[in-house]
Design brief:
Oligomer: single chain
Number of helices: 4
Strand content: 25-35%
Radius of gyration: 21 Å
Low-confidence stretches: none
Strand order of the largest sheet: 2-1-3-4-5
Largest sheet: 5 strands, antiparallel
Order of helices and strands: EEHHEEEEEHEEEHE
Length: 209
């Protein structure tokens, strides 16, 4: 599978062949187009990738415009090109609009650097509310961050919204028991935790960006 990018932010022209299975590092100086390429890759699995990562200014054709941009995907001898038409990104030819559904990936996940932290209310931090974190996640954190404190990782389902899991590190025992919430995690620790959560249970043959 190949992607061709023309006139996207700092990328004038780029041909990128998606590599095979494994861990691959994409490196480059600031502003060289790494995030733009990752967003183009994310479009393989998300119809909102361009809207979310290539922001435009409504009603303007001179500010934040992508009118000269083309992102082209080649797969199994077929091609679909996405270009910004003033209101949305349109596929050409339209008959190939479903081509990316045939990509070789079970799912595509974009892991942006996100400093968002979920903090529980004090009355939610009770022993009966604490839940065990899967052992695979704790082991991943211990090995990547080289810190045994993650063995004491717990979480609570907070009432700050449906599905919000607030993570805490438990320290001490009984009367000397203390908890440290996500607001005391470093940005690096937080990013690795979110990566571990995403990887846990992910379908085989997924593309993780």
């Amino acid at each position: 599978m190949r992607i061709e990018i023309e006139n996207l932010k700092n990328i004038r022209s780029l041909e990128f062949d998606l590599p095979g299975p494994g861990l691959w590092l994409l490196t480059g100086v600031n502003g060289s187009g790494k995030s733009s390429l990752l967003a183009a890759l994310y479009r393989i699995g998300s119809g909102r990738a361009f809207q979310d990562y290539f922001k435009t200014t409504a009603g303007q054709d001179r500010i934040d415009t992508f009118k000269d941009t083309a992102v082209r995907y080649h797969l199994d001898g077929e091609t679909v090109t996405y270009a910004y038409g003033g209101t949305r990104w349109r596929p050409r030819p339209s008959k190939n609009s479903q081509l990316l559904n045939d990509s070789p990936y079970e799912s595509v996940v974009f892991m942006g650097v996100d400093a968002g932290r979920i903090e529980p209310f004090p009355d939610e931090i009770e022993a009966r509310n604490l839940r065990e974190v899967p052992e695979e996640i704790k082991t991943f954190l211990q090995e990547v961050l080289n810190d045994q404190k993650w063995q004491d990782l717990r979480y609570v389902n907070t009432r700050r919204g449906r599905g919000n899991e607030a993570y805490l590190i438990r320290q001490g025992r009984r009367r000397r028991l203390r908890y440290y919430s996500e607001k005391n995690f470093s940005l690096g620790e937080l990013c690795i935790l979110k990566l571990a959560k995403k990887l846990h249970g992910m379908a085989h043959n997924s593309l993780v960006l």
